[in-house]
Design brief:
By secondary structure, this protein is an alpha+beta fold.
Length: 345
């Protein structure tokens, strides 16, 4: 994760054309054989210092963009070649950038996606069941066996500029932002993936439980949440400052690192979990919520809210996180993006 938030325009990409289709007329793939395009991030944690394993394969086109600004050109090149599968070789941040910059290239007609988890964090790979060492050969074998699932990414647009957006899978604010910053420190210490998630989660809940009112982990963020197309205001339990929420987490994933079940049994779609205030009763219940998806009738009245919302507005005065990247305070529209088809083990 970058340690400072970026202007939204630096990260975002244009939305798809009005028809929702691709702007590219594909070329022909190799006769009788699938053509695979690979976006490889050489700066991803498990790619650093390692050569690409795909070079020289006639059915595989490998591109290594120099950075985010080079991604549209790279994706356009692959689309023009008529790829059947798009491999994203990197971590969650690489996936976010590819999905963001690729929307104007592929629209709602993306090729099937293959995720090779090579980053410090690989939450999408956990959701898809892809092990750390999953290879392109493994993925091609899975294709032959017809192993695919669908997920929708989250699309985030400034309310004042809906024609730009960023795409990802896990969005959070409040204590989540504090936790991700702490997780970056854990990465600096050499802790990655589920271990880093577990360590920072335990540390954060402990700090919120024992800390004083001025503790960083207890502050939360001032925010307004309006649900659905009719923008119904999200209820507040009344505990703490009614203009603030301690934690907001939104995701379209269904399985999470360490088997965490913050969304309970909500299932598919864009899900929200919100904790109004760090009340010790609720914090003491979090191990049961996270481990077993525990849900009790008293929880909404005590400040824990869980919803499926295909879209919502979020206005907040602190930074939010999307797949590890920090974005500035503001007024945003968050909604489900097009369905994406992933190859799974």
């Amino acid at each position: 994760m970058e340690r400072a938030s970026h202007p939204f325009s630096e990260m975002s990409g244009p939305t798809a054309n009005a028809s929702g289709g691709s702007n590219i007329v594909p070329g022909r793939a190799l006769e009788g054989r699938p053509l695979v395009g690979v976006i490889r991030n050489p700066r991803s944690h498990r790619n650093i210092g390692r050569d690409s394993l795909f070079a020289g394969h006639p059915d595989v086109i490998v591109v290594e963009p120099a950075g985010r600004t080079d991604l549209p050109r790279a994706l356009t090149e692959l689309a023009e070649r008529g790829i059947d599968y798009l491999v994203i070789n990197g971590g969650d941040g690489t996936i976010r950038d590819v999905l963001t910059k690729g929307l104007s290239v592929f629209g709602s007609h993306w090729p099937a996606l293959i995720i090779l988890p090579k980053g410090k964090t690989n939450a999408l790979a956990v959701d898809l069941g892809a092990p750390t060492g999953w290879s392109l050969s493994d993925a091609m074998a899975a294709i032959e066996n017809g192993r695919f699932i669908e997920r929708c990414a989250i699309q985030v647009s400034p309310k004042a500029d809906p024609d730009t957006q960023v795409s990802g899978f896990i969005l959070g604010a409040g204590a989540f932002t504090t936790g991700i910053r702490a997780g970056q420190t854990a990465h600096d210490w050499g802790a990655f993936n589920s271990f880093a998630v577990g360590a920072t989660s335990v540390w954060g809940v402990t700090q919120a439980f024992i800390g004083s009112a001025g503790n960083l982990w207890r502050r939360g963020t001032k925010m307004e949440i309006r649900l659905g197309a009719n923008r119904k205001p999200m209820k507040h339990s009344g505990y703490g400052d009614k203009s603030r929420r301690w934690l907001l987490l939104a995701s379209t994933l269904e399985y999470f690192p360490l088997g965490m079940k913050l969304f309970g049994r909500l299932g598919s779609g864009l899900k929200l979990a919100i904790l109004d205030a760090p009340r010790r009763r609720m914090l003491g219940s979090l191990p049961f919520v996270l481990t077993f998806g525990w849900d009790q009738p008293w929880m909404p009245q005590s400040g824990l809210h869980r919803r499926v919302a295909h879209e919502f507005e979020l206005e907040l005065d602190g930074e939010f996180i999307l797949d590890g990247e920090e974005f500035p305070a503001g007024h945003y529209l968050i909604r489900e993006g097009p369905k994406l088809r992933f190859v799974v083990p």
